[in-house]
Each structure stands twice: as structure tokens, then as C-alpha cells.
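Q: Sequence in, structure out?
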Amino acid sequence: MTQIPANAPASQEVARLKAQLEALPSGARLKPSDTEVIYAQAYQYVAQGHFDMAFRYFSLLTLYRPTCIAYLAGLALSYKMLRRYAEALSVYSFMAAIDAGEPQHTLAIAECLLLAGAEDEARQTLDMVVRFCRERPGDAGCAKAGERAQAMAALLSPGAASDRQ
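A: Exactly. Output:
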């Protein structure tokens, strides 16, 4: 195993971890066409609201393709819909680490924190998404995520509770 220098940037460490996960022997056990068939079934379960079944299929997929964002997103969504927020947070956090330029993962973390009742952490996470997106003014996807994060944060502000009543 390759040693990572103590002063290496975190992004290099994450990239190396991602490469090592993608190189695992399990990745070669299923052909892409096989995983796509399993994904189609998992997606159908999500569309039908059968998250307990979708979770099983997405779990299997992530064993064979541990860094595939689509498979991880399905697993995280299934956990979230099953109210298994700690597990959903773990998967969304992993997604945010390996796909750091995508603010939707961090926005999903904030949603899970809200659902789990951790409003202060959710607010801090939403603020982080807003700051991240402000640093990328030309990115349309980031702008959309930033707007959504701002709207959610506004709903969490102390004055918003009295406005809703």
C-alpha cells in the first residue's frame, strides 16, 4: 500500500482512496451491463416507494462499485426514506468527500440533519453550501443548490418560525 506524506493535501488523499476503492477486485466481478440491470431494478423500487427493497439492491451495487455516485445516491436516499438518518449521513458524507465539487451532496447532508432534529448542525451545513456556491458564480448547478440552501436556511432562522404561524 502506498504511504501518503503527512503534508499531502486532503484532496490527494481522497483521490488516492477513491482510486484504491475503484481498483478492488470486487469491481471486476460484475460487468457494467450486470450492474445496470441491478440499478434499473433498484430504481424501480425507488419509483414505487419500496425503499426497503431498493436499499438491498443499492447496497449490493455499492459493494461492486463503491464510488459510483448514482449507486451511492440511491443507497443514501433509501436510508433517508427509511428514516435511517445516521446511515444516510454517512453515505452522503462519503459522496461529498469523493465528489467534492458537487454541493448537492452537502445539501442532502443538511436535509438529513434536519430530519434527524439537528437544526444547528443543519444551519451550519446550509451556510457552508451557500459560501461554497458563492465562490463559483458561473456554475449553474451550484447556483441552484446555493439558492435552495439559502431558502432552507431562511426557514430555519429564528424569525421564520413566527412567520409560519
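The radius of gyration is 18 Å.
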